[in-house]
Amino acid sequence: MKDLGLRAMRKPQCQSDPGPCQNVAHDPALHVKKLSRPRGISSVRARASASGTRGASMPLYSRVAQSDANRMSRMSKHVIVIGAGIVGVSAAIWLRRFGQEVTIVDRDGPGQGTSFGNAGLLAACAMVPVTTPGLITKAPKMLFDPDSPLFLRWSYLPRLAPWLLRYLAHANDRDTRRIASDLTDITADTVDQHYALTEGLTARDYLRKSDYVFAYDTRAEFNKDQYSWELRREHGFVPTLIEGGAVQEFDPSFGPSITCLAVVKDHGFVTDPGSYVAALARDFEQMGGRIVKAAVTDIDASDRTAPKVTTSAGPIDGDNVILASGAWSKALMQKLGLNIPLESERGYHIVMTDPSGGPKAPSMISSGKFVATPMQMGLRCAGIVELGGLDAGPSDAPFALLRRKIAQAFPNLSFSREETWMGHRPATTDSLPLIGEVRNTGVFTAFGHQHVGLTAGPKTGRLVAGLIADRPPNLDLTPFSPHRF
Q1: What's the pTM value of the predicted model, to 2 decimals?
Q2: Where are the alpha helices (DSSP H) in 40-172?
Q3: Where are the alpha helices (DSSP H) in 201-289?
Q4: Could you tell me the sign of the dihedral formed by the alpha carbons of 122, 127, 133, 135, in that order?
Q5: Span 310-352, pLDDT tens digits
Q6: What pLDDT score was predicted for residue 174?
Q7: Spatial distance between the Cα atoms of 268 and 122, rounded to a whole number of angstroms
Q8: C-alpha span between 405 and 366 (Å, rounded)
Q9: What is the enclosing helix (H) or strand (E) of 437?
Q10: What is the dihedral of CA 342, 346, 347, 352, to 10 degrees?
Q11: How far is CA 107 from the centre of its chain?
Q12: Rounded distance, CA 260 to CA 251, Å?
């Protein structure tokens, strides 16, 4: 076992985190985590911003906002949250803690969309975007390689092309480093954020702390990922390498094809993502929140007073709106006059029920770009990128690739049956979500997280809730502005 430098250090837990509805004037001191870095490597995160130094250890919300509970109480609002995934439900819970009246509206109910089928990983080190340097030359080869985890529905290409060209334009070193720095601000403290969200709630039972294991066929394959690992090191995530026979000593589930592991500490996972979000929603209702099962058909913010929301169950009046409906947010943004370059990165999963011989911790199988996570319902293997829009059904080829790669990585895996699923990751052209107000309309965006929705959902929800409840965050949100396109 070889330690490749300094490991990321865990920040001490806050000692003053209140219960679900206590002490709204003094927000629990969940800090923007500052991770240790190897000596001699300067971080692009350690730079000044409009609101202070990003990456510094500081309260998530400004002291000015924390000091005026009476004013906040007088300004209590009714907020309509569109979308009952992890982002929307997180925002709703924090709004209730901040003393606001909240209604969640979702056509399918809590945790039934993309939040249902993700890998369950709290991926603190997931700041490296897909658009790394070299993707432009590698992507065409990957599309024609039957063992590649990248797929395209060719009939969708004419519609996809404008988005795809803008997306690939970010596949350079400067943009990749900028994107990684910005994503770190909303991903690095994911475990702390999930535990803060679930303080005093029943949903806490679904959370686990764990390592995150990257599994490679060979050391040479690990070395090919050095650009991504260098970015992770710069932001404080340094792996421990395990090679040769020590791989199976670390975890006997890995087959002989896996000869190199990169293990990163201080991560976590959710044992059942759909049930986790559903439990959060029940906790939200116990806190006095309201959930309406209906489709949102229109948002009208033309009169600049209070946005009007029209649903299949009738109109809902409120003072503010949070748009957190993932890949389906594009159409509603168009009604607000903004054409957001948003596409679906279709993701796939297979769950092996009653498994034996699976990994002990969430494991990224590099050759297939999927994560295998032990969950309550079985072993979930989730990943793949397919570009093909929102309307088409699942394709057969991604499932076939997953099955082959699972069998190679875990040859001793046995199970009773498999369950398959396909969902939609909301992907912007610059790999960053939209967090902020649309002009001065009272409509706030909280969508577009691509591969890090579960990871960044609680913090995104907390940030946007703070914007509405007059608790401005100590974090420059300019990179996530809905007006940046």
Answers
A1: 0.87
A2: 63-66, 69-74, 86-97, 114-117, 135-143, 157-168
A3: 219-224, 226-234, 246-250, 273-286
A4: positive
A5: 999 999 999 999 999 999 999 999 999 999 999 999 999 999 9
A6: 98
A7: 5
A8: 10
A9: strand 434-437
A10: 150
A11: 21
A12: 12
